[in-house]
Amino acid sequence: MRQLLLAVGLVCISHAFGREQILFEKYFTDRTLRVDYYHAGTKGAEAFSLDEVYEEGQWPGSRVNLVDTLNLGEYLFQVFDAQSKALLYSRGFSTIFTEWQSTAEAASGVSKTFSETVRLPFPQKAVMIKISRRDRQMVFHEVFSAAIDPNEPGKVNRTSVPAHFIVVPLMENGDPAEKVDIVILGDGYSKADMTKFEKDARHLNDVMFALSPFKERKLDFNVRMIQVESVDSGIDIPDRNVWRRNALGCRYSTFGLPRYVLTTENRTLRDIASAVPYDFICILINDTRYGGGGIYNLYATTYTNEQVKEEQWQSDYMYAHEFGHSFAGLGDEYYTSTVAVIDFYLPGVEPWEPNITALTNKASVKWKAYLSPGVEIPTPWDKAPYDSIWALHAKLDRLASDYYVKRKPLLRSSAERLREERFINSVGAFEGAGYASRGLYRPSVDCRMFSMSLAPFDAVCTGAINRVIDFYAH
């Protein structure tokens, strides 16, 4: 009987996949439609305008999981058939603009414009695209829509894919439609730095796929690197008045935070990335200052040149941490470091990130399936001693020449403190997360998304990562 039920289940799954495949073939072709648009505004106000629509190469995404079931991201992109109004495709995502709105500069009334992109399988007929945004109560509301007819003359830019970039496969495990496809780009690598770029890319790729759950799911991924030459080595450091001619436009001091590295040169980034099939983008930074960033379904950045050799582990830590943001929508679980955003999470409202909770319902924690038996909610931990260590760390100048010497005993003390916690191996709800010392909770005492260490992903973050892998790879 058990074998019969299993067989029936497999048949049902096969039929479901078959229907989705038929849906894909009915409405789409095996190409990619890239939609660039402008996103402008200030705190409390935003506006969109269509920029350009492009035809790109092979569609790298799933042909069976077309409609998003992950419920991640600040925004939701949807594609509807123009005639029948049927929902054909959707994906959640987040933006630099969202973070910009939470800065003091935006609160002062300054407006800015960002270039952004959404991508979809190339439609055979006219479609209506819609972008919705969550309000502060996490409910989606439509904020932009546009009609796109790929058969209308002049509507789609069919510029050929860039051919002058050298592509190096790091991992190839199958058809892009059935795998998670990562592209690794470098910024601030000059022509003379190309050997170093490949070494950096191979090293960090090896580091991530030695870490669970990526280690166990390695065969579900394809990873390719594109050699992108910058005129100069290194990237912009605005707070030091250092400016370099780097190809992707990455820079430190995003939103005034010295360690935060992003690029707003979206069109350049997308043009280059289109040389390969990709679902997710990682950018390696050829510079010595500690820094990086990661935004869900946009990209992750990681510096690669540590000035002190024994501290090289920091970029290893950061690569997986930032990928956790961009790949699985994981939130920052720490609360002790300076950040650029203000009131990023509304008190008393459950965040969409899978690893942070406001604990609005103690009887039904959002990661209830992972809770350790008998664990108390909220879960007690020795927070005050840990905070006192990080209060000392906050007084250090990260850019000072003796920073690493002074920081080393503090990192050691904080790690020892966490290891001594009574519930170190439990999943509960530990107060302190999402940049807030109070009112937000994380699943575990320690995790790659919490401490600046080589800690593994906890059970909740691991589950979130696996759900994304399952959605893209099958």
Topology:
Elements: H1 2-27, E1 28-42, E2 45-56, E3 75-81, E4 87-93, H2 96-101, H3 104-107, E5 112-123, E6 127-134, E7 140-148, E8 166-171, E9 180-187, H4 194-208, E10 221-227, H5 266-273, E11 280-285, E12 292-295, E13 299-303, H6 313-328, H7 383-394, H8 403-419, E14 430-433, E15 436-442, H9 459-472
Helix pairs in contact: 7-8
What does this structure look like?
With 474 residues, the protein is α+β, with helices and mostly antiparallel strands. The chain has three domains: 21-148, Immunoglobulin-like, CATH 2.60.40.3250; 166-328, Collagenase (Catalytic Domain) (3-Layer(aba) Sandwich), CATH 3.40.390.10; 362-448, no CATH class. Helices cover 25% and strands 25% of the residues. It has nine helices and 15 strands. The protein has helices spanning 2-27, 96-101, 104-107, 194-208, 266-273, 313-328, 383-394, 403-419, 459-472; strands at residues 28-42, 45-56, 75-81, 87-93, 112-123, 127-134, 140-148, 166-171, 180-187, 221-227, 280-285, 292-295, 299-303, 430-433, 436-442. The strands form four sheets. The protein has a six-stranded mixed beta sheet, covered by helices on one side. A four-stranded antiparallel beta sheet has the order 4-3-6-7, covered by helices on one side. Strand 3 and strand 4 (87-93) form a beta hairpin.
Name the average pLDDT: 92
How would you spell out the order of helices and strands? HEEEEHHEEEEEHEHEEEHHHEEH
* Residues in helix, %: 10-25%
Count of discrete alpha- or pi-helical segments spanning 4 or more residues = 9
Morphology call: globular
Q: What is the CATH topology assignment of the largest domain? A: Collagenase (Catalytic Domain)
Name the CATH class of the largest domain.
Alpha Beta
- Low-pLDDT runs: 1-17
Distance between the termini: 27 Å
Structural class: alpha+beta
- Total strands: the figure is 15
CATH superfamily of the largest domain: Collagenase (Catalytic Domain)
The largest pleated sheet is described as: 6 strands, mixed
- Strand percentage lies at 15-25%
Strand adjacency order, main sheet: 8-10-9-11-13-12
Number of domains: 3
CATH architecture of the largest domain: 3-Layer(aba) Sandwich
Rg computed from alpha carbons, rounded to a whole number of angstroms: 22 Å
